[in-house]
Design brief:
Residues 621-688 form the AGC-kinase C-terminal domain. By secondary structure, the chain is of the alpha+beta class. Helix content is 42%, strand content 7%.
């Protein structure tokens, strides 16, 4: 009977993850507060703001005001929807959206976004035009401003490398209307005095303006800074410029391009004209790409700030009052109130068991209101107390809550019951890298580069927050359904302190300084460099299939040194053995980076000055770091949509023995978890925005799916 139940749960789990692309499938309605309850919540929000403003953040924007609302991803999304759906004015809010995207971009992508913004929103109008009218005869770049590489076979068949989406131009009326499809688009709040705003409006005055009302010295300043792009082949169609991979490694300084006049009133801007670029020799293309990369990197980060502020103030004056009276605003308040309520176990529907930790099980689960799939890590308070692991448990929750990185499994919610504490995390359905290594023997070079690059950035994200991971191994590197890898299991991650010492993690991945003792027999202190040693062990394992200090060679080395046990032999090899990298498996660059990562001396070990010096190693010379960092690179391997985990019978359950039953939780024990409850505002906003995008695309409200009334509960 248990096997039948396991099979049912497996089928439900596979069905759930397979249907993710079909959109959210909620099973619970969103709770809506009453007027009195909503009023109390707003009063509490304002009171908390007043306290923080006086004590910590004097320039904090007032809650529920214009700047505060647009600084929230959910607030920005609903305000944008109000303008496009209710007011039917999209040009100005689209401009603000594009500026935000521009600030998030780098390199080639920033060049494309620069051209897109200038051509669509900052081309001067004819003197006879009215602000808001489209430029006459303007060939405008289409909404698909970013040329993404084809990801499917069908897309590849119809893809022409020299012609990207930006070259598919159409003479249309005004800038194109676009919708927000991201889950985290938000506008940073501004804090300008009335005097500064008055000066800004004075700089914006002049007879000629663009379609968003920007002109005068503000427009002149922007045009002068981006003038160099007019001289590059294919301007306005950056997707036909040479690829970043064609840039030589030595980015020497390049003489400036002679200036060319921008379009003035009455001029016709023609976008495209990429035939010259396509006929260039490779050397000329490389030169153009070097020039573009160099010059775009020199564009100031505040390039569009004045123009964006002018537009934002216009929007505030014309549309903010109407938004506050709209259904979109009411919806925003209801969602934000729901975000601040206490999360409870009943908000989630449990599916298949995925694994077992030290204090409880890890299961797949579904958030009832949004239909979002997550992993639920349950830890029993009694088991935590029995193992005296309260400090490590609290540290794990604190670390997960503070590190918000695409390269680390993120904490979405944490809550508790009388008996357990819960962590709701990213659901990584693709299995761990140890499992995939066992299937493949070793990884191809492109997978080694991709996985190690993301793992490196995950470690750096932890280090930036002052944590050392201490448990890096392939088992703790999980693949998502899309093939993206993230670090998981931060149970041994701790704050870096001057007196940090003691071996932690998995033998064979420990750094030698974890095992060393001083003349008095006391363990030596260590810091973040232990993670880079473990990183070297993992990279070697990705390339060859075997970790250097968990191999037969390492075991024999330790035994020959006189160690009597397998464990001591591995420790001896970690401290003293210099691995040899077979040329049949490791090329020169791979062998060199591994020797430097596995340096016994932490001071001379690669990574001592941060991950940038690892990124600069020749082993990674062909990797497009901008695409990795921005999370735009397509993974080289997509795992099967299947149960990439052990069977539930193998995972097992926890036995409740006499020691467990005899353990009593006191008020002091309970007090340890007073600050455990947590809601990640970014994760909540993503849930809701995904929900709202699905409603927008289907054109109808997304209602909960009725529960199956039969004896078997089906999770859709």
């Amino acid at each position: 009977m248990e096997e039948l139940q396991d099979a049912i749960e497996d089928a439900q789990y596979v069905s759930a993850i397979a249907s993710v692309e079909d959109g959210p499938r909620p099973v619970l309605p969103w709770e809506i507060p009453g007027e009195a309850e909503l009023a109390r919540w707003k009063d509490g929000l304002l009171a908390s703001h007043a306290k923080d403003k006086d004590c910590i953040f004097p320039s904090l924007p007032t809650p529920l005001g214009f700047d505060w609302t647009l600084a929230q991803a959910l607030g920005f999304f609903l305000f944008s929807a109000y303008m496009k759906e209710s007011v039917r004015e999209y040009v100005e809010i689209n401009f603000i959206e594009e500026v935000i995207r521009w600030k998030q971009s780098k390199g080639r992508l920033r060049a494309e976004k620069t051209a897109y913004i200038v051509i669509n929103y900052l081309t001067p109008l004819a003197e006879s035009s009215t602000v808001g009218d489209p430029p006459p005869e303007l060939a405008v770049v289409t909404p698909n401003a970013i040329a993404s590489p084809p990801t499917t076979d069908n897309e590849k068949k119809g893809h022409k490398e020299e012609l990207g989406p930006m070259s598919k131009i159409h003479p249309i009326v005004g800038p194109p209307k676009t919708e927000i499809t991201e889950y985290s688009l938000r506008r940073e709040p501004t804090d300008f005095s009335p005097q500064v705003m008055q000066e800004l409006h004075a700089r914006n005055s002049g007879p000629i303006k663009s379609c968003i009302g920007v002109g005068g010295k503000i427009l002149e300043s922007i045009m002068s800074k981006v003038d160099f792009m007019r001289n590059l082949p294919g301007f306005g169609s950056p997707s036909i410029l040479p690829k970043e991979g064609d840039i030589p490694s030595n980015n020497a300084a390049i003489p400036p391009v002679p200036p060319r006049r921008w379009a003035s009133a009455g001029d016709v801007v023609v976008v495209g004209g990429g035939s010259a670029a396509r006929s260039q020799s490779l050397s000329t293309m490389k030169s153009d790409m070097r020039r573009l990369s160099l010059m775009v990197s020199q564009l100031p980060e505040n390039l569009f700030d004045d123009a964006e502020l002018i537009v934002a103030e216009n929007i505030r004056e014309k549309y903010w009052d109407g938004f506050q009276k709209s259904e979109h605003h009411s919806k925003l308040l209801n969602f934000l109130w729901f975000q601040d309520r206490t999360v409870v176990e009943e908000d989630f529907f449990v599916m298949r068991v995925l694994g077992r930790g030290g204090f409880g099980l890890v299961t797949a689960c579904k958030k009832g209101t949004s239909g979002k799939l997550y992993a639920m890590k349950v830890m029993n308070k009694k088991r935590i107390k029995l193992k005296k692991a309260e400090k490590l448990t609290l540290s794990e929750q604190e670390c997960l809550a503070s590190v918000n990185s695409p390269f680390v499994v993120n904490l979405k919610y944490s809550f508790q019951s009388k008996t357990d504490v819960f962590l709701i995390l990213d659901l990584m359905t693709g299995g761990d890298l140890s499992y995939h290594l066992s299937q493949k023997g070793c990884f191809p070079r492109d997978e080694c580069l991709y996985y190690s690059a993301r793992i490196m950035l995950g470690l750096q994200a932890l280090h930036d927050k002052g944590y050392v991971y201490r448990d890096l191994k392939p088992e703790n590197c999980l693949l998502g359904e899309d093939g993206r890898v993230k670090l998981t299991d931060l149970g041994l991650a701790v704050k870096i302190t001057p007196d940090l010492h003691g071996a932690a993690g998995t033998r064979g991945y420990w750094a030698p300084e974890m095992l060393e003792r001083d003349d008095n027999g006391k363990r030596k202190n260590y810091g973040r460099m232990v993670d880079w040693f473990s990183f070297g062990c993992c990279l070697a394992e990705f390339i060859s299939g075997t970790s250097p200090f968990r191999s037969q060679i390492a075991l024999d080395f330790g035994l020959e040194k006189g160690e009597k046990t397998k464990e001591k032999a591995i420790d001896c090899a970690t401290r003293e053995m210099q691995p040899v990298f077979d040329g049949a498996k490791f090329d020169e660059d791979a062998a060199d980076i591994l020797r430097r990562l596995l340096d016994k001396n932490e001071v001379t070990r690669l990574g001592f000055h941060g991950c940038n010096e690892i990124m600069s190693h020749p082993y990674f010379r062909h990797l497009k770091w901008d695409d990795i960092i921005s999370d735009r690179m397509q993974p080289p391997f997509i795992p099967r949509t299947d149960v990439n985990a052990a069977s539930q019978s193998e995972i097992g359950t926890f036995a409740e023995d006499k020691a467990f039953h005899d353990t009593i939780l006191t008020e002091k024990d309970e007090a340890l978890y007073d600050n455990w409850n947590f809601t990640n505002p970014k994760a909540f906003a993503e849930e809701v925005i995904e929900f709202l995008i699905y409603e927008r695309e289907t054109g109808k409200p997304l209602l909960p799916i009725p529960q199956n009334p039969t004896c078997c509960c089906t999770i859709l």
